[in-house]
Write a structure and sequence with these properties.
Shape of chain B: globular
Largest interface: A-B, 25 and 22 residues
Largest sheet of chain B: 5 strands, mixed
CATH topology of chain B: Transcription Regulator spoIIAA
Number of domains of chain B: 1
CATH superfamily of chain B: STAS domain
Strand order of the largest sheet of chain A: 1-2-3-5-4
Distance between the termini of chain A: 41 Å
Helix content of chain B: 25-40%
Radius of gyration of chain B: 14 Å
Strand content of chain B: 15-25%
CATH topology of chain A: Heat Shock Protein 90
CATH architecture of chain B: 2-Layer Sandwich
Shape of chain A: globular
CATH class of chain A: Alpha Beta
Strand content of chain A: 15-25%
Oligomer: heterodimer
Number of strands of chain B: 7
Radius of gyration of chain A: 15 Å
Largest sheet of chain A: 5 strands, antiparallel
CATH class of chain B: Alpha Beta
Number of domains of chain A: 1
Chain lengths: 145, 122
Amino acid sequence: MPISRSVVVASTPSAVVDVFNEIQPGLQANNYSEEDIFAIHLSLEEAFTNAVKHGNKMEPSKAIKVDYSIEPDKVEICMTDEGEGFDPEVIPDPRYGDNLYKPAGRGMLLMRSFMDVLEYSKKGNSLRMIRYKEKRNPKSAGKSR
Amino acid sequence: MASLKPRVSVEYGEKATIVTFTDEKILEERDIVELQQSLVGIIEQSEKINLILDFANVKFLSSAVLGLLIRVSKKIYEQDGQLRLCNISPRIYEIFKITRLTEIFDILPDRAEAAASLTKEP
């Protein structure tokens, strides 16, 4: 059964737990596999962490809006923070050179790998990601080498 | 009130110190900070540690944990110690593969192979 909802939560790292707890039963009810649920959970965590840290700059008075829809064949999540946005093209590839040894900067790569679609708004403070059901293997990672 | 549940269990073997993560999910920032404090404390107990991190209980982690592992590995390599990771589930191994961290971490199937892969010098 398709589910579509919009939630606004406080910009604190732990708030993502409530968001996932709300989404998870819908995924199970629509027969998403454990692989799909793992991928969606991971991508949601990474997107939320970026929104809290880099978007809303760890200000708990700010909010994050999550719109999601769960359909029999795909899950779509849109997330918007109150930050100034950023240009995703300038984020360095964490897999090469000195970046490989840096402790941060892998969230976007993981989202791109585990979801089928990852798009940012022009301003960069809003993202949209989609995963289609029964996609068994994550995409071989990214374009830049 | 702060969570008091243990984040790791520690065994002191002949060839290595084995740290097992006890949580199924390692996600929240404060969990990761606690973990890092525990691990750094264990590393600092030795002049030169051989450390095996056992992921047998871990079913889910985020990229923040990868950052923690990188920081911990730097600490170990600074003292010329050795680090091995083991019992990583296929899903979590995929995260290491995608990020190419398989290139910088020694990941072994289980504790026995991790211990066997350590060079003799402690």
